[in-house]
Design a protein that fits this description.
- This protein is of the alpha+beta class.
- The chain is 31% helix and 24% strand.
- It is built from eleven helices and 14 strands.
- Strands 10-12-7-13-11-14 form a six-stranded mixed β-sheet.
- The longest helix is centred in the middle third of the chain and has 18 residues.
- The protein is globular.
- The mean pLDDT is 90.
- It is found in: Cytoplasm.
- This is Phosphoribosylformylglycinamidine cyclo-ligase.
Length: 356
């Protein structure tokens, strides 16, 4: 008698299709909250559909696109078992890049890669992404959840996303609009945002031996709560500011720090100076610096130092701009100005010392 053998299967290889289907069902209600009138169809199609006839009101529409992730901040979420905030970070990293050129965020897709599908965990991640999309004014039109057993551990995951926006050609913001004498307005960050976590984790955990559940007096909460603080989403604030005041350019302060990101929108013949004395970085930046004996310049080229977005506006628009941002609850201030380049080689520099 021939002995019956069991053949290989996808499930035996570690991929649980049923768990994936349950995750989709759990996330549907959150995705629905992000829908805009231009979105056609529902979750589950092969492609997300967006009615481009909505762009007919533009004379020369330019589509803006961006893609990003949230880096090693996902490991903090994994360790704490908190999954519904990391999506805010993802939306901010993508859509705040798009709004820099003056574009209106339209729609976004996500990619979630996991070692093992835990439906409730995946749904929590998507919930955060959906909430972020609402804050950015864009629709979440689709995504992908991929299970990679053997490549990732059962609790490991990563997230990435791509977004699209639109701007009228003659309203495109950037270096071409910036003039000598323009003011640089800083908008406060909510904390570390989603950059520099490899340095932060190395300093606070490997060198200082701190734990995520430790209460840190300077922070007023646990270290884990501070490190998981969601990235502020500025998209709707920037769009409102552009409608209210004349804006020449925005700079999203992400990897590379304040000076390097601001320099990306400064024309070659001009130079931006930012005065550190106009603000005090949050306690987390001082904690990282002291715990790792990190030099100030190294901190500044890695972390946002308390500024998440900058706007370059003409001097006559400063008061209107600051009022508009204050009305939206955005902490903002004049941090610098635009000067002739002269013999400077950098596009932007920080001067002075931080306010104490």
């Amino acid at each position: 008698m021939t002995e019956k053998t069991t053949g290989a299967s996808y499930a035996a290889a570690g991929v649980d299709i049923e768990a994936g289907d349950r995750a989709v069902e759990l996330m549907k209600e959150w995705v629905k909250k992000t829908q805009r009138p231009e979105v056609l169809g529902g979750l589950g199609g092969f492609a997300g559909l967006f009615d481009a006839s909505a762009l007919k009101r533009y004379e020369r529409p330019l589509l803006a696109s961006a893609t990003d992730g949230v880096g090693t901040k996902v490991d903090i979420a994994r360790q704490l078992g908190v999954y519904d905030t990391i999506g805010h970070d993802l939306v901010a990293m993508v859509m705040d890049d798009i709004v820099v050129c003056g574009a209106e965020p339209l729609f976004m897709t996500d990619y979630i890669c996991v070692g093992k599908v835990h439906p409730e965990r995946v749904a929590a991640i998507v919930k955060g992404i959906a909430e972020g999309c609402v804050l950015a004014g864009c629709a979440l039109v689709g995504g992908e959840t991929a299970e990679h057993p053997g490549l990732l551990g059962p609790d490991d995951f990563d997230v990435a996303g791509a977004g699209t926006g639109v701007v009228e050609y003659d309203r495109l913001l950037g270096a071409d609009r910036i003039r000598t004498g323009d003011a640089v307005i800083a908008m406060a960050s909510s904390g570390l945002h989603s950059n520099g976590y490899s340095l932060v984790r190395h300093v606070l955990f490997d060198r200082a031996g701190m734990s995520l559940d430790a209460h840190v007096e300077e922070l007023g909460r646990t270290l884990g709560e501070e490190l998981l603080e969601p990235t502020k989403i500025y998209s709707l604030d920037c769009m409102a500011l552009t409608r209210t005041a004349e804006v020449h350019a925005y700079s999203h302060i992400t990897g590379g720090g304040l000076a390097a990101n601001l320099a990306r929108v400064i024309p070659d013949h001009l130079h931006a100076t930012v005065d550190r004395a106009t603000w005090t970085p949050g306690a987390i930046f001082d904690l990282v610096g002291k715990a790792g004996q990190v030099e100030q310049l190294e901190l500044e080229k890695t972390l946002n130092m308390g500024v998440g977005m900058m706007a370059v506006v003409p001097q006559e628009s400063v008061d209107v701009a600051l009022t508009a941002l204050a009305d939206r609850g955005v902490d903002a201030w004049v941090a610098g100005e635009i000067l002739d380049r002269g013999d400077r080689t950098e596009g932007a520099t920080l001067t002075g010392s931080y306010a104490s």
